TrEMBL record, chain A:
Species per Swiss-Prot/TrEMBL record: Pedobacter chitinilyticus
Descriptive protein name: DUF4374 domain-containing protein
UniProt superkingdom: Bacteria
TrEMBL record, chain B:
Gene3D superfamilies associated with the record: Carboxypeptidase-like, regulatory domain, TonB-dependent receptor, beta-barrel domain, TonB-dependent receptor, plug domain
Similarity comment: family membership: Belongs to the TonB-dependent receptor family.
Keyword terms, alphabetized: Cell outer membrane, Membrane, Receptor, Signal, Transmembrane, Transmembrane beta strand, Transport
Statement: the UniProt record of this protein carries the keyword Transmembrane: yes
InterPro entries xref list: Beta-barrel_TonB_sf, CarboxyPept-like_regulatory, OMP_b-brl_3, Plug_dom, Plug_dom_sf, TonB-dep_rcpt-like
Protein name as annotated: TonB-dependent receptor
Organism: Pedobacter chitinilyticus
CC terms in the record's Gene Ontology section: cell outer membrane
Domain of life: Bacteria
Membrane topology of this protein: Multi-pass membrane protein
Domain TonB-dependent receptor plug, residue spans: 127-223
One Pfam family named in its UniProt record: CarbopepD_reg_2
Lineage: Bacteria, Pseudomonadati, Bacteroidota, Sphingobacteriia, Sphingobacteriales
Domain Outer membrane protein beta-barrel, chain residue ranges per copy: 579-789
């Protein structure tokens, strides 16, 4: 007892001395002169990874980053542990990280928490050295606390938000559907001199007939700027309410509605750039695809070398559609189906993809009824696909699984579900491949020769996985 | 209803038992100079009966069995005295004359018997007793008192009146029970809680860590805070206090007690009013300003706005004390009303303007207690409360604001454009005007019987019934479609206390059984203007048991051990979820189990009359199994929602296989010559992540790591010094110093200065001056004198340096 008293007393003294002599750590000591556009040659490939939150939810607790050289990237004896040696990007939850063309900057908009919706820019300096440029922009007033945004063209970020409100004949259960209104918000973010340069809010231009038959858009994502930089194409989550069914209520007294069968094809919202005016919906021929194209945490639309926009029906579909660079409408004569190209009997889903050059792209996909996460090089002109082979591609930690309460099967979060980015440097593309909770490797793939090089070893930990290369 | 009847049944079960022959004694304690001795302890040890003499030296002891007894009298003023008495009729008068001690000090009446505080703290439970008598004269709130106590961390989301979470050695949230006289404090409404009840209305606060006594049962595994309101009915008095301080904070409270000594009629009334603008300055990292175009300035010095808090309340009790039928019987009425502006959400993401709550509560109560009811050793205590409380929330301002209260400007170039109005929106989301009315009936009864000296068995029952009525005032037609729930709770608890080896060994074993019943009435359709309901009833029950042990191996040295095993059953919300609120169902969720252990010791060293040391230490070990937690799901495709790709936050209640909190708390108190009182306490614990296997079945990388967002190390210290006869004869001046330290802690797993609550170290100074008449006390306090940057919750800054002044006026013994 006496001993514990003296310890406490000693501690008290130490505290007092500490307070009197300790110097305050300054939070703003970092030099922030390094910013602007990415004008330097590539020096590093940055790897990012997600880890669990406080309650143990896999991949939800934030993002770590670590930059390695291209030489280290292809060295299978080089080991990276981003969790112990990396730099924590600011965000209370795992958000979307985007990168600049040569990998010298990373961008992130924080998800939820005190700084939810705040944009941050980091200069990549190698290893765990990143400079927070302190050019913070608050996007929350327009985009909310967990914004959907991507780099729509080098130096230009676009954030989007949509919601739909149903009008009913009466409150409560048993009411009739009358109409629905869908609203969109768009913000343009300058990445070179971070600020919001333009923003708008408008009603999504369905026809009166469409809305009265239940069509709505509750979410939009993956905006891309066309080659001429005159149009923004935005992926849509198009849904339909069954207008023949009456409403029901939940415990909160709020109306709920049944879903109807959709007849419209995959939709894209188009606005003029930079004015953000003249909103328009374009649809692909419904016989080609009715699968939505609003993706999840990764960019799934690219401007091809030929000037057309290539858009995947990600993340549930297997197709890549084309929007013509001349008419800015869907090219109904074009349809790339990965399932057909791979000659797969099972359905496949594109988790993420990137257009590389001259019609060649790399696709990360999962196969229905099969565990694992797979890679394929695709030729969008020849409509062919070549499956690549990686070490532990059949691991369930890529595809994940849902819990089944009847059989007692527990859920596993799939690393492919949250995959964010593929890096391109010269003829090589770089993809970190770690199943949830299991070590993996960084792979370098020569898109011309299709040669796969197993690179740096990636140390992993429970409930975690590498998300992207930049 | 069935359970309620059962409860009533056992309350009256002992009705038929015959009465034994007893007598009452009374008298006056005087010194040889014929001066009355106030506050002397008068007791018959063998019967465990004791009382205090009043200001005029009178005492009274009731229901003494016929026969010979030893009456003991002790006080600081007189030499202890023993006298043998014989009871052979119903009323006896024994006047006692005792020899006065030399140093006669009336300022401090130290009672040689055990105080209630000491008695409880050495009972076996890990309990801290906070006495409010002195604090009530100072500029201290009830929450500040709690926060200084060992192992308690009060985490408030901003200024006065903001939502609070109590953390008891790493356990927090719904695992902690909050009680007022043994009744859940929520019954009294949000307008009458620890945020606004002034310490002057409180007798003491009991803080139980982990293991709960049988009279405080419920779904609580982390501990409980029980506020005991003023019970004393010994002397008529009127007290009043007013204070004014920084941030336009002003408070007033009054209290009065009247007792007619002839017939025992007693009335007690008290009231309070409190107001604060809470417009203190913030300057920390998360104090932001948004420039046109969205760029952020940090460490922006700004006065907190839209955080006004105002509360008013009154408590009136009428009844009888120390009469034949009851020791205390009171009818009470409690009314309270408060208004609180809400300046931001859980975090300081964006400022809110025009969002506020209004609370109101009317509470009726009946309090009855009687020792030796019907026959010796049987005592009954009933506390019944019925409340009608309402909560109003309004948020109808749709404009977007900056932290300085100006409108947010969108564009960096050209003439400034603001966001304008967006119909149907408020500050937090959709516009809200809602009122929730709740009716709660809560009855807690305790029947105890002393089998023979030192052995007591008691039965506890708690009945609670609550229903709520939600009204959407913006869309009134929606209100009737909201599902109605009626919740009925019955908790039975039984315990057996024994004292062995001359009271050196005390044990208490207890068992608890609870039944929770939910009656749900969901509107499903409308038929000919009337609603068609679907009714459903679910019943859950849970059990628990535990025990305590206190052993006094050496004089004034106690070993204290307690343990409890308890279960919490999942609720409908846990099982069925709320799909409309993106909360998924989990039909396989398991009940939560907790096993708590406390091992502690207390030792008082009295070296001489001048030096006194009090030492206390306790080790705690809290084990949670299958803890029910809310988990965020990030799977992009979820079972049953395959046609949707999720990018919205979907949550689900799941069982976390194991949690553990192990730690130690200690307190050292030194008193010198009744002038200097110095205390230091600390609490250090490890809240560990105890999930052994990850999703893949591999050893979990985070196993045994400290769980984020727990203030795991806190130290409090305070020093008080009393000076007599300063400025004026017979006055006294008390000087106070208080320091509080909270070690930095991470709020997420990752190490980052952006997600770490920094070191917090605050110092307070205060002084109070009692004028010679003894009626007037003036006090002055300076809180956070070094203007430190303080945070309870991540990023939400607390007030800096602040000054308060208070005047207390007391009239004792009027009309007697």
């Amino acid at each position: 007892m006496e001993n514990s008293f003296f310890k406490t007393a000693l501690f008290g003294c130490a505290l007092a001395i500490g307070t009197l002599t300790g110097c305050k750590k300054s939070g703003s000591s970092e030099a922030s002169s390094v910013s602007g556009p990415d004008v330097w040659a590539r020096k590093y490939i940055t790897l990012t990874a997600a880890f669990p939150d406080a309650t143990g939810t896999a991949g939800n607790g934030g993002t770590m980053a670590f930059a390695i050289t291209p030489e280290q990237a292809i060295n299978p004896n080089f080991e990276v542990n981003v969790f112990t040696g990396g730099y924590g990007l600011r965000s209370q939850r795992t958000a979307r990280v985007q990168g600049s063309i040569n990998g010298n900057f990373l961008y992130n908009i924080q998800y939820t928490g005190t700084d939810g919706g705040i944009f941050n820019k980091y200069k990549v300096e190698g290893g765990k050295s990143f400079i927070d440029t302190r050019e913070e922009v608050d996007t929350e007033p327009i985009l909310g606390e967990a914004p959907r945004w991507v780099v729509a063209a080098e130096g230009i970020g676009v954030g989007v938000y949509a919601s739909a409100t149903i009008q009913a004949s009466a409150p409560g259960a048993g009411a009739d559907f009358i109409d629905v209104k869908s609203t969109a918000k768009i913000a343009i973010l300058s990445l070179d001199d971070p600020k919001i340069t333009r923003q708008t809010e408008f009603t999504i231009p369905f026809t009166a007939e469409q809305t009265k038959s239940g069509y709505q858009i509750g979410r939009i994502d993956v905006p891309i700027l066309n080659k001429a930089k005159t149009k923004i194409f935005i992926g849509c989550n198009l849904t339909r309410t069954d207008v023949t069914k009456k409403s029901t209520v939940n415990t909160n007294g709020t109306q709920t509605w049944s879903s109807g069968t959709r007849e419209l094809g995959t939709a894209t919202l188009v606005v003029d750039y930079p004015s953000l005016t003249n909103p328009k919906l374009i649809y692909v021929d419904p016989t080609i695809s009715k699968t939505n194209n609003h993706s999840y945490r990764t960019m799934t639309q690219y401007v091809g070398t030929d000037g057309h926009v290539y858009q995947a029906t990600a993340t549930s579909g297997s197709q890549i559609l084309r929007i013509s660079g001349t008419t800015n409408e869907y090219d109904n004569s074009y349809n790339f189906d990965l399932k057909a190209a791979l000659n797969s009997a099972s359905n496949v889903s594109i988790s993420s993809w990137r257009y590389i050059k001259d019609g060649v792209g790399i696709v990360l996909y999962t196969v229905s009824g099969t565990t694992g996460g797979y890679l394929a090089l695709v030729d969008l002109n020849a409509k062919t696909a070549t499956k690549l082979t990686t070490d532990n591609e059949t691991d369930i930690g890529f595809s994940g699984r849902s819990a089944n309460t009847n059989t007692g099967v527990t859920a596993i979060t799939g690393a492919f579900g949250q995959f964010q980015n593929v890096a391109i440097f010269g003829d090589n593309i770089y993809i970190p491949m770690t199943p949830n909770g299991v070590d993996g490797n960084l792979y370098a793939i020569n898109y011309k020769t299709k040669q796969v090089t197993k690179g740096a070893k990636l140390k992993n930990q429970s409930g975690s996985f590498y998300l992207g290369a930049y | 209803m069935k359970h309620f009847l059962l409860a009533m049944l056992w309350v009256f079960a002992f009705n038929t038992v015959a009465k034994a022959q007893t007598g009452n004694i009374s008298g006056k304690i005087i010194t040889e100079n014929k001066e009355p001795v106030a506050g002397a302890v008068v007791m018959i040890k063998a019967l465990n009966k004791q009382t205090l003499s009043d200001e005029k030296g009178y005492y009274e002891l009731k229901n003494i069995p016929y026969g010979s007894h030893v009456l003991e009298i002790g006080s600081m003023e007189i030499h202890a005295k023993k006298q043998t008495i014989t009871i052979d009729k119903s009323e006896h008068v024994f006047n006692v004359s005792a020899k006065a001690k030399d140093h006669k000090t009336l300022n401090e009446v130290s009672i040689t018997g055990k105080t209630e505080k000491k008695k409880m703290e050495t009972s076996g439970f890990a309990v801290a007793i906070i006495e409010t008598k002195e604090a009530s004269l100072r500029n201290l709130t009830t929450n500040e008192l709690l926060d200084r106590s060992v192992g308690v961390r009060v985490r408030q989301n901003g200024g006065e009146g903001s939502p609070i979470e109590y953390n008891l050695n790493g356990m927090s949230g719904s695992t902690i029970g909050l009680f007022l006289d043994g009744i859940e404090i929520s019954t009294y409404g949000s307008s009458f809680n620890l945020n606004n009840i002034p310490p002057s209305m409180i007798e003491r606060i009991e803080v139980y860590k982990g293991v709960l006594p049988s009279h405080l049962s419920g779904n609580y595994i982390g501990g409980a805070i029980n506020v005991i309101m003023k019970k004393d009915a010994s002397a008529n008095n009127i007290t009043a206090a007013v204070s004014y301080g920084s941030f336009n904070t002003y408070r007033a409270d009054v209290g009065a007690l009247y007792r007619n000594p002839k017939n025992g009629f007693t009335t007690r009334a008290s009231g309070f009013y409190s107001h604060s603008d809470n417009n203190y300055e913030m300057w920390g990292k998360f104090s932001k300003y948004t420039l046109p175009g969205g760029r952020i300035i940090r460490n922006y010095r700004v006065k907190r706005s839209n955080d006004e808090f105002e509360t008013i309340g009154g408590r009136f009790e009428v009844g009888f004390t120390n009469v034949k039928l009851a020791d205390q019987i009171f009818l009470g009425y409690n009314i309270s009303d408060s208004y609180k502006e809400i300046p931001h959400g859980v975090t300081m993401t964006k400022p809110y303007f025009g969002r506020f709550n209004e609370y109101q509560a009317h509470v009726f109560s009946l309090n009855y207690n009687k020792k030796d009811l019907f026959f010796d050793g049987l005592s009954l205590n009933v506390n019944a409360v019925h409340s009608r409380r309402s909560t109003y929330l309004q948020d109808t301002v749709s404009l977007r604001y900056n932290w300085d209260g100006t409108l947010l400007v969108k564009n960096a170039e050209g003439p400034p454009e603001t966001y304008g109005y967006s119909p149907g929106k408020g500050q937090q989301g959709d516009a809200v005007m809602s009122n929730i009315e709740r009716r709660i009936s809560n009855i807690r009864s305790n029947l105890a019987y002393d089998i023979f000296s030192g052995h007591r068995v008691s039965l506890n029952h708690k009945f609670e019934k609550s229903n709520r009525n939600d009204q959407d005032l913006l869309d009134p037609a929606r209100s009737r479609w909201i599902t109605q729930n009626v919740l009925t709770t019955n908790i039975w608890a039984m315990n057996y206390e024994s004292e062995l080896f001359n009271g050196k060994l005390k044990t208490n074993i207890f068992g608890k059984y609870a039944i929770y019943q939910t009656d749900q009435k969901s509107p499903i359709a409308e038929n000919a203007g009337g609603l068609v309901y679907e009714n459903s009833r679910t019943t859950r029950d849970n059990k628990g048991f535990g025990g305590t042990l206190s052993y006094e191996p050496i004089n004034n040295g106690y070993l204290i051990v307690s343990a409890e095993k308890s279960f919490i059953m999942p609720t409908d919300r846990h099982i069925y979820g709320e799909p409309e609120n993106n909360l998924l169902a989990n039909p396989n969720i398991l009940p939560e189990m907790a096993i708590n252990y406390n091992f502690g010791a207390r030792y008082n060293i009295v070296k001489s009359n001048k030096h006194k040391f009090m030492l206390y230490g306790n080790m705690f070990w809290r084990n949670g199994y299958d803890k029910i937690i809310l988990q965020t799901r990030v799977d992009e495709v979820i079972e049953g929602r395959e046609n949707q790709i999720e990018d919205i936050q979907v949550t689900q209640f799941v069982n976390l296989s194991k949690t553990q909190s192990v730690g130690f708390e200690a307190e050292v108190n030194y008193i010198f010559d009744n002038k200097l009182n110095a205390m230091v306490n600390f609490s250090k614990f490890n809240s560990l992540f105890k999930v052994e296997k990850d999703e893949r079945g591999n050893p979990h990388s985070l196993y045994n790591k400290q769980v984020p967002n727990e203030p795991f190390f806190t130290v409090n210290g305070n020093v008080q010094y009393r000076l007599n006869d300063v400025f004026q004869k017979r006055s006294n001046l008390n000087l106070y110093y208080n320091a509080g330290y909270v070690a930095p802690f991470r709020t997420i797993w990752m190490e980052s200065e952006w997600f770490t609550t920094p070191t917090q170290f605050a110092h307070d100074l205060g002084a109070s001056y009692r004028f010679p008449s003894g009626k007037l006390v003036a006090s002055f306090d300076c809180k956070n004198i070094l203007n430190a940057e303080l945070y309870d919750n991540f990023g939400v800054q607390k007030p800096g340096r602040a000054f308060y002044f208070k005047l207390n006026y007391t009239i004792n013994n009027f009309n007697k």
